[in-house]
Amino acid sequence: MKRKILAPLSAFALLITVYTACTRIDTTDIGNNLIPVVDNINTFDTILEVTTDNFLFNDTSRVYDTENHALGVIASDPVFGKISAGIYFNFTPLAYGGYPFINKDSIKVPFDSVVLSLDFRAVYGDSLSTQTFQISEIANDPRFQDTARGYLISNEPLNLGSTITNFTQDFDRLSDIKYYKTPADTGITATAGMLRVHLPVSFGDRFFNYDTTVYRNDTNFRAQFPGLAILPTGGSQNALAYFNLSNVAKTRLTFYYKAKSFNGVTDSAFSTYFTFRNYRNLNKIERNIAGTEYANAMNPGTESDERLYIASSPGSYATIKIPALPTLPNAVIHRAELIATPVNTPGLPYQEPDYLFLDAWDSVANLPKTIQNDFVFNSSTSAYNQALFGGYLRNGKYTFDVSRYVQGIVTRKEPSYTLRLYAPYKTASVYVPTGTYNTYPSSGLIQIDTVAKKNNVMIYLNENISYGRTVIAGGTHPTNKMYLRIIYSKI
């Protein structure tokens, strides 16, 4: 699976120094390479207990214009509650400065149809869900402006104008091939993976009847047509669908019409399409967890939770403390891995997140940061080593390789942090390049974070927002407790 990588390598250039240490550990001896057999003579293993706790994020996720947008409702997840998602966006002509259709006097009225189409990408939840939606015009709302940063998913809903239409969609049909007539010589176009909704002819009439001043520039056009909102209203609400607005081949507002006569041909067929206006989009996503297991787990008072509730954005995280780790003597760490086991209720259609992420909380800098030397960016491939670091569900468990992190603690007496486990769509966790803690102390971390925030740098980890939730056994679970396993040799 390809992932967008926005690593702020240039931000680190002035901070990178040569990696040195008093005790050199051959990297072929640790981590993902060949691990010696545990014989309890030369090589040993040990299990460290962990303390775990649940927390809700003050979610600051944003969905950018080129990213997939969630739409729909999961109304009755018995464990995690309700989540709903709506989309606000705008269409514009391909160019301003002139009338976008053929000569107005040549158009045969009434015109044929106007169709809203969206590029479909994925479904989360029950693919047999059938939901109803309302398409409305956005009112002239001064809050809805172009923004390259994207709007927060927690943004207040925009003001709406009149309702254009309502429609019902079977989610399992979104991947079907759609056949529709076009003015091209081939006559019929076949396209898979697309939502197509016919809008009322009266809605399309407006665009034909606007004079050229409306199409002169974006300001004039937006004053007449601020945009559309698609909001869920009912049906069997147990899934989210994902759509991409920036794919102009599929996401369009298309007008089909005929000319009275064109080049001597009566009723010549034409189509004109408008496309999504970049930077003008809001994916409004809300969770309601009242009365759920998820909500109960967030109650303060228990510092070692038996079950950890991990929901993708807008979501939650678990803290993991390993009290005995700083007390370990110096050793060669061949392998250290945090092992976590899902304990989900069987029979529900809600999948685990594609990827769980583990980072560290630097309490001095008051910032999250990546696990140095274990979560690594490879400049030659422009990708992070997610597969080696861990976070994918394999053989019923999540494992994270923290061998080098543990080596730094036992050998160089580097800090042992509170770790965070979560399922981010993307994260602002500060990427720490390879080296030692002294190379990138807390003060250096603040400098890196300042540059990263200025450049709007994020680490992308999951393909879609709000995709996935899981329950993980915590440090006090009776049968599947989370733990840190270390394979080591004495020095």
The biggest sheet amounts to: 6 strands, antiparallel, barrel
Structure class? mainly beta
How big a fraction of the residues is strand? 35-45%
* Poorly predicted residue ranges: 1-31
Average the pLDDT over all residues and give the rounded result.
89
Number of helices: 7
Task: Enumerate the strands of the largest sheet in spatial order, edge to edge or round the barrel.
Answer: 4-5-16-15-6-14
| Total tally of structural domains | 2
State the total count of DSSP E strands.
Answer: 30
- Note the overall shape: elongated
Amount of helix? 10-25%
Rg, Å, rounded: 27 Å
Give the termini distance in whole angstroms.
Answer: 41 Å
Explain briefly what this protein structure is.
With 491 residues, this protein is mainly beta. The chain has helices at residues 9-12, 201-209, 218-224, 293-297, 386-389, 403-412, 442-454; strands at 44-49, 51-56, 62-63, 68-77, 81-92, 107-125, 130-138, 151-152, 160-170, 177-181, 188-192, 194-199, 228-235, 238-244, 252-262, 265-288, 307-311, 316-321, 331-340, 357-362, 367-369, 377-378, 383-384, 390-394, 397-401, 418-422, 426-427, 459-460, 469-473, 483-490. It folds into two domains: 9-59 and 290-490, no CATH class; 81-288, no CATH class.
